[in-house]
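Attaching the record inline, Q. Sequence:
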Amino acid sequence: MTPPLSEAAQPQPTIRLREAVAIIVGIVIGAGIFKAPSLVAQFTGSMGWMLAAWVAGGIISFIGALCYAELAATWPHAGGDYHFLHRAYGRHMSFLFAWARFSVITTGSIALLAFVFGDYMTALVPLGVYSSAIWGALAVLVLTWVNGRGIHAGAGTQSWLTMAEVLGLVLIIAAGLWLWQAGAGQPMVPPPAEAVSASGPPDMAMLGLAMVFVLLTYGGWNEAAYLSAELRGSRRRILHALVISITLITVLYLAVNLAYAYGLGIEGMAKSQAVAADLLRVAFGRTGETLIAVAVAVASLTSINATMIVGARTNFAVGRDWPALHALGRWHPVRGVPTAALYAQSGFALVLVAFGGSLRGGFQTMVDYTAPVFWTFFFLCSVALIVLRVREPQTPRPFKVPLYPVLPLLFSAVCLYMLWSSLVYVKAGALAGVGVLIVGGALLWALERAPRPEATRRDSVT
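Structure, as predicted:
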């Protein structure tokens, strides 16, 4: 007989290093790498500056990972960012973050990725007018069932999906190398380095816009913090998971962009609406189109599964801190998952899938417009490291960020820049973000005045 959900049960260190790496890589490498490179090539205008932008993205992500590694190693917690914000700024700020994450950031990402999966599956097997929404809903339901079976089922599935996803990127790299060595489409081959560099650096505004898309494509590594309480080994293990993941991602991104450049040329990349599909079409014809559809579908599934794993843990942490939401704070002692939090997250994501299917594209715009909210809280998390260094100087820290406070301040500045960029390039996003936080504020007010169940446990995971 399976033991029931328990508010006393705690997350246990059951996740292996390779599983953590698979989850992080799966979150980061999504559909973006199949689209963003053409925009980055367009904004930078040369191979040298394009590659420099992708290298800079890897370096910035690495600096941010060092900051998160200190926070996660010092305070391992299933709540991740939520817990750091709670310690640094109090329960009200952390609740607003949890609300934004539940209402838009995490569930919106799951739904958006479900539509990406649905779009590409529809190209292979159409299911009628609402084919994308149907395929997307099926993906959410199946992966919810997998993760509901337990952390090993979810993490094991993630390992296989990530392997398939990386093989898809390897296929793109192989296609670019094959076209380059075979000399196919000679006019599309990029000019020598001297000729490229002769064009001069891109306009700073264009370079900044290129970095917006680069960092969005690198985004998601911070989700590793949600695994810190369940990672086997020493507390410094989270640092190893982040370093390995970001190094692998950076190498893959550089190799993929080189493949695009040598297979299509910089101009070909910049003009392409579907750069990966164009590359594989040139290399393998119609078979290439089918292969890329499968690759993007797998990448979407990989990101959905990983997002489900880490997203449910924020809801679990909120349930532990807020008595009125205590049902979310129950941990299954055998399966090793916050089952109620997982089902609530997937249920809301399915509502968004249905809503997005009815709008036929309006949902994607709504999700994109939440970027200011995301970068606001990302900035607050980066500053939290400095706040907690000042407030809790005696707390043992298994890992400390080198060159403190230079690196945390540098990463905070990047977050502010990204916040500014999201407000400039997605102007209506500010209104959407304010709306989300206003609703969260009203909910916070109601929860503060809700009666507290006597039997509710409020102990937090340490």
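The radius of gyration is 22 Å. The chain is about 70% helix and 0% strand.

More tomorrow.
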